[in-house]
């Protein structure tokens, strides 16, 4: 054997041994996860449509020790007013507040009220793009079995339910939500455990938010830049065999926003090619005030420069409770479902309330009060307050998505008369000064019921 060949074999063996030394085994990966993963106990007294009133738990992981930031799911921290307690594996505890809750992807950043010394900062695989077959593990608290791990592989990725999700056969159950999905090769967090198919026929199909999306939001927050997505006031065509095209079907953009036309194909954001809405939103974050779009319009490539309106800040979300009915702006995915301007929606109804007795339903869109068209939540609030000075009854007109299939109608018109009571503020509102306004700021909830923090997606 030549000296050159002998040296080559030694080099290969040395590399192989180095890889074995650097590789982490499952016990080591999960031992590290135990040091950065937390349990998050959540109480929700007033629930917007995305949440359920009650108490539950999920998971999270420390991503910034200096700022005391923990990353989790939006549906764990809640898109409604909530009380949060964070618990480490050694049972050390701290309260927490929401720093940022995303209205598009299932992600939230919360800040601990005080440091938990035992917690370590998770290593994030922000540059990783795991392929099918990549070995991964999930860590969290499935069904209340605290700080436990499961293993599987990456099955692929999908945009079937809007934002891109990693698909995995790693078991993810109630209580895993918000916890880390970890590369068993590197030990880095590559996803946030989010959901599973809720079907008896399912053979273990589960989903996670890619950490690449989360890292962009985290970096922008650290730079004190708003990472909010645009308000997505645009509908895109669902085209068979052309899933790599973003074709505008309808636009409800504000006059001050970039104007997209029906048939426009969005090609890129600031020269970064985009093939779906998830990529479009990802690259628009942090630059909504200075947007550069490359668009193909009638076979001609053009550049559009301008701005887009950010989605409503979830942390400062507002609502109005009236006769047991919680009104708020509709979720981002339901904006303009009945056309421009129909944005005030019923989010929750208190059991046994007058609104419950009047057969008002969650997802009803309010269009008029006492004959006056409703354009936004602030206007509704003012009209509800002033109505009590002129009448004992309030007439509410709704549009309801039609359940009468085959009728040819998208919606049903519903009218209800309710006895006037003073509306209650939910979230941060300036006080309305009227002769009938009671003292104190009424922000009480609508009752509570028990729930398990999990989010399941149904096969459509």
General shape: globular
Question: What's the CATH topology name of the largest domain?
Answer: Thrombin, subunit H
CATH class of the largest domain: Mainly Beta
Number of strands: 27
Number of separate helices = 7
What CATH architecture of the largest domain do you see?
Answer: Beta Barrel
Q: Rg, please?
A: 25 Å
Give the rounded overall mean pLDDT: 86
Approximately how much beta-strand content do the residues carry? 25-35%
Helix fraction, binned, reads 10-25%
Description:
The radius of gyration is 25 Å and the shape is globular. It has seven helices and 27 strands. The chain has helices at residues 3-22, 26-36, 74-77, 211-222, 277-284, 354-357, 377-387; strands at 37-44, 54-64, 69-72, 83-87, 93-101, 108-112, 135-140, 148-158, 165-168, 180-183, 189-197, 206-210, 234-236, 248-251, 265-269, 272-273, 291-297, 300-306, 319-322, 325-329, 344-349, 365-369, 372-373, 393-401, 411-419, 424-426, 456-457.
């Amino acid at each position: 054997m030549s000296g050159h060949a002998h040296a080559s074999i030694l080099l290969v063996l040395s590399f192989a041994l180095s890889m074995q030394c650097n590789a982490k085994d499952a016990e080591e990966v999960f031992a590290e996860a135990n040091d950065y993963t937390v349990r998050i106990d959540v109480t929700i007294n007033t629930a917007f449509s995305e949440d359920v009133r009650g108490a539950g738990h999920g998971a999270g992981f420390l991503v910034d020790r200096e700022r005391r930031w923990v990353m989790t799911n939006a549906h764990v921290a809640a898109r409604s007013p909530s009380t949060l307690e964070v618990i480490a594996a050694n049972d050390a505890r701290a309260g927490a507040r929401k720093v940022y809750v995303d209205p598009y992807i299932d992600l939230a950043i919360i800040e601990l009220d005080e440091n938990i010394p035992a917690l370590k900062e998770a290593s994030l695989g922000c540059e990783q793009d795991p392929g099918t077959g990549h070995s991964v593990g999930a860590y969290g608290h499935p069904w209340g079995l605290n700080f436990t791990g499961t293993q599987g592989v990456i099955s692929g990725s999908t945009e079937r339910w809007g934002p891109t999700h990693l698909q995995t056969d790693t078991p993810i159950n109630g209580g895993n939500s918000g916890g880390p999905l970890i590369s068993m090769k590197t030990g880095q967090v590559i996803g946030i455990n989010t959901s599973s198919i809720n079907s008896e026929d399912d053979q273990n199909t589960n989903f996670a938010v890619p950490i690449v999306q989360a890292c962009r939001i985290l970096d922008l927050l650290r730079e004190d830049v708003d990472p909010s997505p645009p308000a997505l006031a645009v509908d895109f065509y669902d085209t068979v065999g052309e899933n790599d095209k973003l074709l505008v079907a309808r636009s409800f953009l504000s006059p001050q926003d970039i104007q997209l036309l029906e048939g426009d194909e969005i090609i890129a954001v600031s020269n970064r090619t985009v093939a779906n809405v998830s990529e479009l939103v990802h690259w628009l974050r942090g630059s909504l005030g200075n947007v550069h779009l490359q668009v193909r319009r009638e076979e001609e490539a053009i550049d559009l420069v301008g701005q887009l309106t950010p989605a409503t800040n979830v942390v400062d979300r507002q609502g109005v409770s009236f006769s047991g009915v919680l009104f708020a702006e509709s979720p981002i995915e339901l904006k303009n479902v009945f056309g421009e301007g129909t944005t005030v929606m019923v989010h929750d109804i208190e059991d046994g309330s007058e609104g419950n007795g009047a057969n008002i339903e969650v997802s009803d869109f309010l269009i008029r009060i006492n004959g006056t068209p409703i354009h936004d939540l602030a206007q509704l609030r003012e009209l509800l307050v002033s109505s009590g000075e002129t009448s004992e009854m309030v007439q509410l007109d709704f549009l309801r998505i039609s359940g009468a299939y085959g009728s040819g109608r998208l919606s049903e018109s519903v009218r209800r008369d309710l006895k006037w009571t003073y509306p209650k503020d939910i979230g941060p509102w300036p006080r309305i000064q009227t002769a009938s306004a009671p003292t104190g700021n009424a922000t009480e909830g609508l009752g509570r019921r028990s729930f398990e923090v999990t989010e399941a997606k149904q096969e459509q």
